[in-house]
């Protein structure tokens, strides 16, 4: 089980990083210009009693608007992968390396090493069988 104090510290650091990134974005010229443009458009629409739908009908593709109301096809999600840390025996299920624990492991052990910890729980032997050392001696016999 991960150390809760370390996890808390990591979350605080991540929160500080995100806050800094948000402030940088809010202070950027491109963001300020985008906000000013949006507010100006909304002001003109309000003056003329128009809605976003009216604007889209006027300038947008009316066919595209109609199809956007139809149910959207679900995006194919990434497959769920399982990783086991051999040092701690912790198991993590994740669809990508954006998982906090995988990031921590990758930082500590290297991404390629952590990728090597992936396993398929459907084909993995039971824990009692996995600790059985009878398979180890057979490896040198095969090499001989």
Order of helices and strands: HHHHEEHHEHH
Number of domains: 2
Contiguous helical run count: 8
Query: How many β-strand runs?
Result: 3
Largest sheet: 3 strands, antiparallel
Instruction: Kindly estimate the percentage of residues that lie in beta strands according to DSSP.
Output: 5-15%
Enumerate the strands of the largest sheet in spatial order, edge to edge or round the barrel. 2-1-3
Biased composition (Basic and acidic residues): 116-127
Region (Disordered): 54-82, 116-144
Domain MvaT DNA-binding: 81-117
Protein name: MvaT DNA-binding domain-containing protein
How would you describe what is shown here?
- By secondary structure, the chain is mainly α.
- The chain folds into two domains: 4-68, no CATH class; 81-134, no CATH class.
- It has eight helices and three strands.
- The chain has helices at residues 4-27, 29-47, 52-59, 62-68, 100-109, 111-115, 127-130, 135-143, and strands spanning 81-84, 91-94, 118-119.
- Strands 2-1-3 form a three-stranded antiparallel β-sheet, with no helix packed on it.
- The longest helix has 24 residues, at 4-27.
- Residues 116-127 have a biased composition (Basic and acidic residues).
- Residues 67-82 have a biased composition (Basic residues).
- Residues 54-82, 116-144 are annotated as: Disordered.
- InterPro entries: MvaT_DBD.
């Amino acid at each position: 089980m991960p150390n809760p104090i370390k996890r808390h510290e990591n979350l605080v650091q991540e929160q500080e990083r995100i806050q800094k990134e948000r402030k940088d974005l809010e202070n950027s010229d491109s963001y300020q210009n985008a906000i000013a443009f949006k507010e100006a458009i909304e002001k003109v629409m309000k003056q003329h009693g128009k809605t976003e739908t009216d604007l889209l009908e006027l300038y947008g593709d009316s066919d595209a608007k109609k199809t956007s109301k139809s149910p959207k096809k679900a995006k194919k999600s990434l497959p769920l992968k399982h990783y086991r840390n051999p040092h701690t025996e912790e198991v993590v299920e994740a669809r990508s390396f954006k998982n906090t624990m995988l990031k921590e492991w990758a930082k500590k052990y290297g991404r390629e090493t952590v990728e090597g910890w992936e396993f398929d729980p459907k084909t993995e032997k039971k824990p009692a069988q996995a600790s059985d050392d009878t398979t180890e001696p057979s490896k040198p016999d095969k090499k001989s």
